[in-house]
Give the backbone structure.
Amino acid sequence: MAESKTVKTVKAKKPVKTAKTTRTKKAVKSAKPAVAPERARIVYDIDAYSPQKIAARIDAVTAVKAKDSPAATFWLGVNAGVFIALGAQFATLIMSDSGLHSGLTAVVAGIVFCLGLILVVVAGAELFTGNCMIFIGYLEKRITTTRIFNHWNYSLIGNFVGSLIVVCFMYKANQFEFYDYMVGAKALLIANKKVNLTFPAAFSKAVLCNAMVCMAVWVCFSARNVADKIMTLIFPIAGFVASGFEHLVANMYFIPMGIFLKGNTEVVAAAERMAGKTLDLTNLTWKGFFVLNQFPVLLGNVFGGVVLAGLAFWFIYLRPRLDFTFTIKEDFHRDKVK
Amino acid sequence: MSDKNKLESVSSTAQQSSTPFIDIDAYAPKMMANRVGQVGVSKAEMGFLTTLALSILAGVFIALGIQLAMLVTHTATSSFGLNALVGGVVFTMALVLIVITGAELFTGNCVFAMSFFAGKITRGDLSRNLIISFIGNFIGALTIVFWIYISAQWTANDHLLGAKIVIAANEKVNLTFGVAFARGVLCNALVCLGIWMCFSARNNLDKVLSLLWPISCLIACGFEHCVVNMWLIPMALVLKGNRFVMEAVERVNGGPLDITNLTIAKGFIGYNLVPVVLGNLFGGIILVAGVYWFVFLREPKK
């Protein structure tokens, strides 16, 4: 980095000098000593973090996470599960009947789903899908292999526990009765759709989903304040929800909720009314949940987060610099000076 | 992914060159926990009359927010989901006013149990603050019941606004204990998370945006907030006696509405306020303050 900077400054200065000297020699001479030292010393920096700094900050956060106790990771994981489930139930309610056509409904649902990610990013939680980004720090050797796997496992189990807590509370709160059981019907239809995906469809949807979630985390690391974080989050998160991609932790709410609601005859009747046909709910079981949905989605989310976001950004910003061009230029420059 | 311990990340290798003397980044969760702990101490030190006055204000703000939400949603022609969402978004006004003016809301103050867990204030301090703010919120909400009744705002739109208030309140007094408790838990978890996120904020825009999602969620999803019910149900109790409002209720409901539970002692206190307050306390104190205390402020065992 240092090498590239020197080359850049040398390159940049030359044309400026010639251009200015041709105009007014005196003005440049008098201005230069006054301006130059002030520019060099940065007193405080309030700009958003640049991509290089984002990569460095994620790297540093990984080092912090490596020291976290398993209990803290687990409870923060529970928090993340609760937050995402709250966002998911909010989106279900809004989607149940929006009166808009399906595209606009999807966008509105996506925007309200941001509740989950806003809480995760601002309030502090360990979301498994977002945590795929700490692979950047692993590549920089900030965290050992066992630690990173433990971290992922604890946060994943925490996410599952948190989601189930919200499922229990939401079922107990009888929210599915709202609007003549339409809210429950919508939840059932969403869950049934998710367990009837083929493996490639679930996998590719999951890859796209976590690439977008990790992108949201990435842009949040650029933010200085909460408003920045929220405004940058909205676009990727609303995007992935509206596009119907598969998020592992969100499915931990949607599908168990559907399994609970399957036992309620009124909800099933309302769902059949909403769908306009008899529903085949044979796949909507715990087995279907783990085998048909969670397994491919887990693989897809890990691939999307670790390879497409983590590895890609590490390659762009943090890989060991082997840039021959810079050294050659430097040598060339030195030769010229001699 | 949380970016906690930002101090450490600032001092990481990549940033040593820029040397920031002024930190303007949003507070990281660990710092938020410390700030909540300090604010809890200052709230415990506040005098009785100051706390009471601030909590009356909070009751007033919540009542104004929920009456606005009622007005906006009472005859919306848009569909169920969007209608609920708009009601939630306008209700955020109440929490924005409370957070920015520093009023004492009973439900929001549950988050300051964190300083009790951290050993900075005693159980007496915490319960004193919660009890005073509960009483103050009640007084504030009843004040707005009085003013709204006098202003005859409920006659708006051919008494349909009054009808909406009565129907909404009647739903709230006909809940079973378990349902009201669960809705109370979910509600106050969201309120306290909104307040908690405000402690990350540096400016008011941050606060407003971080409140918008959780608060609109709790109203849109029909969760039970005890201070909201302190306005809504008394207002319905007052309007119950009005002939025109009850006619409008029948028009909306498509038949006479069973309002036998809409009474002070049995319906309001017994069926609604008791389970909802218990749920609110559980959601705020255990699920938000307790969990965040456990993660960020707990002294490690030696």
